[in-house]
Design goal:
10 strands, 2 helices, ten-stranded antiparallel barrel, globular, 186 residues, alpha+beta, Lipocalin, single chain
Length: 186
């Protein structure tokens, strides 16, 4: 297991470094993309986003402009995203950016997506599972600390999509903690 984690770390590090320098170059899907990959493929492209942090009272506590770039990898069988906050157009020091990347590939045996996430804040690989339909994508994440998070992509169309992060309360009810509204960059 340790060898897999080391390999995964090295692979993700290489991918994020390469992705940061070429996010504008988005590969197109091969002609024979599996249906499941096409569901995530709706997100392939470059997006300007507004990220809102939601407080305990349900009100927005902070708002940020950022970018989210999605593209096909591994001959179109997997999807990678690179999340950059704030937008690079804001011209700040590279060390002040929050950058994260996710890779997802469909597991035909489990009928679920296997996903990984790595970012400049936590500096660790997080493994998650996801299910998708034509209407939305739901990712479930059990953190090392025992928290349960749910990320939902919804209202997806050619020009926009929405995303929300929810955490499970002690009684099992979900509470929204972050939202994203994405508009495709022209």
């Amino acid at each position: 297991m340790k060898k897999i984690a080391i390999f995964s770390s090295a692979l993700l590090f290489t991918i994020i470094i390469n992705a940061q320098s070429s996010v504008g170059l988005i590969s197109s899907a091969p002609k024979s993309v599996p249906e499941e990959v096409a569901q995530w493929g709706k997100l392939v492209g470059n997006w300007d986003i507004v990220v809102e942090m939601i407080g305990e009272d349900g009100n927005v506590t902070q708002s940020f402009n950022a970018e989210w770039n999605w593209f096909y990898i591994m001959n179109g069988l997997a999807i990678q995203d690179v999340f950059i906050l704030p937008k690079r157009a804001d011209n700040i020091e590279p060390s002040d950016y929050f950058v994260g990347t996710g890779i997802r590939i469909y597991d035909e045996d489990k009928k679920k997506w296997q996903t990984s996430w790595l970012d400049t804040s936590s500096k660790r690989i997080e493994l998650r599972e996801a299910v998708s339909t034509d209407q939305n994508i739901v990712v479930i994440h059990n953190t090392e600390g025992g928290d349960k998070l749910r990320y939902t992509y919804y209202d997806m169309n050619a020009e926009s999509f929405k995303w929300k992060q929810e955490s499970a309360n002690n009684d099992g009810r979900w509470k929204v903690t972050q939202t994203v509204v994405a508009k495709r960059r022209s």
